[in-house]
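ok, trying the design again with the full structure, not the truncated one.
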């Protein structure tokens, strides 16, 4: 893990050393404090020369003029004030971090001509800096000298009108950032060092943050009758785990909200094997479970006033002489039987038993599962939205809203009886694949057969969870998608109600 830059909040005053980053809207006027960093007006005069028009996220740099105590001044464009939304402030933090270029001491002046920056916005800038700073470099024995934005050992000051309020807002956000970092670390970690046991240990480590964590072993899973999940793991030499993480921040009598994650530490496809090209990406097939672990970290860290449970099914889909075959029929914990027509449609088999276990043990208020379930969802939606499938309109609407606030966007997809029929099987209660079309929807119908009347949503995050295009706030292959979304959903839809 890269050392995070140290972030402090200070009163709005002109910095006395290091570099300053000044926010500039598209009318190119400097705020009061920005102006006092550049008493001679050099920066403003440089804009026409450098072609800087203050488009959102762009920057323009100047050696600080002689006689001022700073080394450099950087103008960071925020574009049109009226287009700024909540997410813009995180992005601005990310864009600021990109402009750091290895300096050791930077002050971001969180002041903008024409609008009053709020404490939440100043805190979001800081959080954006941290999100952007993430690097997965634990296996690098040499540093990449050409990494321009490394923030190791760096001190960042956010100069803001009300530093105490910003600091308070940031103290909450930091837990969410830590959750995202944790999820990214898990997704990026290769499968040779992150098997089910190691994954369960990473979840268990959250007890440090006040969660109760229990880990089911294969013996216990067998006893519970989790034949669908265990069938997937049959070809792997590494035993499966189901991990239950509990955060009791709500009233004792309140039923929990349960977050469920697909944790396939590696997906070869099993006997219905995948082709070689791109198979290495399947180390990220536990992105749903990683998001749940990260979200539990966030919720516990900020002591959310809600009862939240995270449950992950952690297995490896491999091939050996004992591996499951196409045509095998397994019995799920619910008692329903499944004809495994394709061993590469394994995620839904894992979800089936975890969903059932969840309802038996917790009688949840609602359940949300996250899974890198299908390639088909990427064909439908690309990588900028996750697919949302649900049996409940209110839950869907709340999730879509949380997605818009955090910019972890969801797009609702259809479900229904006519889709459901396609997974009926001649030889068992159902089969794990349907027809040729609508693969993400057919995949979603499968876990629904293991949902009683609990409000439930399934998020197919195969697109945004990994290898998504880099953004201002993420440069990593594993994106940590879902952590900010789930944290926000808990905050807006579950706390205090
Ligand atoms: N883990 C994959 C889905 C996936 C593919 C996630 C690419 C991320 C990137 C899942 O287990 C899978 O193999 N799904 C199959 C289903 C098919 C066999 C019906 C797929 O999408 O091809
Ligand atoms: Mn698969
Ligand atoms: Zn998979």
């Amino acid at each position: 893990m890269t050392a995070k830059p140290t972030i402090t909040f200070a009163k709005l005053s002109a910095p006395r050393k290091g570099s300053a980053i000044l926010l500039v809207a598209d009318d190119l006027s400097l705020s009061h404090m920005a102006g006092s960093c550049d008493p001679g007006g050099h920066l403003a005069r440089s804009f026409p020369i450098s072609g800087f028009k203050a488009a959102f996220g762009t920057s323009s740099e100047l050696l600080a003029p002689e006689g001022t105590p700073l080394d450099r001044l950087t103008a960071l464009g925020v574009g049109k004030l009226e287009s700024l939304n909540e997410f813009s402030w995180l992005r601005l933090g990310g864009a600021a971090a990109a402009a750091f270029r290895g300096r050791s001491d930077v002050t971001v002046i969180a002041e903008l001509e024409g609008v009053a920056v709020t404490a939440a916005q100043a805190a979001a800038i800081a959080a954006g800096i941290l999100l952007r700073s993430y690097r997965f470099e634990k296996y690098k024995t040499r540093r990449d000298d050409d990494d321009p934005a490394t923030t190791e050992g760096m001190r960042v000051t956010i100069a803001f009108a009300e530093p105490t309020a910003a600091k308070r807002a940031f103290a909450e956000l930091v837990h969410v950032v830590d959750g995202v970092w944790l999820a990214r670390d898990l997704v990026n970690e290769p499968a040779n060092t992150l098997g089910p046991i190691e994954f369960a240990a990473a979840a268990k480590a959250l007890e440090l943050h006040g969660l109760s964590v229990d880990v089911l072993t294969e013996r216990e899973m067998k006893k519970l009758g989790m034949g669908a999940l265990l069938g997937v793991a049959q070809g792997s030499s590494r035993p499966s785990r189901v991990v239950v993480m509990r955060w009791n921040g709500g009233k004792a009598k309140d039923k929990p909200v349960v977050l469920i994650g697909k944790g396939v530490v590696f997906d070869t496809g099993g006997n219905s094997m995948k082709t070689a090209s791109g198979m290495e990406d399947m180390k990220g097939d536990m992105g749903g479970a990683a998001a749940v672990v990260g979200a539990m970290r966030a919720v516990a860290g900020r002591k959310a006033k809600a009862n939240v449970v995270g449950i992950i099914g952690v297995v490896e889909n491999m091939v050996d002489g004992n591996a499951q075959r196409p045509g095998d029929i397994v019995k799920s914990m619910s008692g329903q039987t499944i004809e495994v027509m394709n061993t590469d449609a394994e995620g839904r088999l894992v979800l089936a038993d975890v969903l059932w276990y969840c309802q038996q043990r917790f009688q949840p208020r609602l359940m949300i599962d996250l899974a890198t379930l299908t390639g088909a969802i990427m064909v439908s939606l690309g990588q900028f939205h996750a697919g949302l499938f649900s049996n409940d309109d209110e839950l869907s609407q709340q999730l879509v809203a949380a997605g818009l606030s955090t910019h972890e966007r969801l797009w609702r997809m259809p479900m229904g009886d006519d889709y459901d029929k396609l997974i009926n099987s001649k030889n068992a209660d159902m089969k794990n694949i349907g027809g040729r079309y609508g693969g993400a929807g057919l995949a979603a119908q499968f876990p629904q057969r293991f949902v009683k009347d609990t409000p439930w949503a399934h998020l197919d995050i195969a697109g945004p969870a990994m290898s998504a295009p880099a953004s201002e706030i993420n440069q990593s292959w594993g994106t940590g998608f879902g952590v900010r979304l789930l944290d926000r959903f808990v905050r807006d839809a579950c706390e205090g109600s």
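Keeping the full-length input from now on. The longest strand covers residues 257-267.
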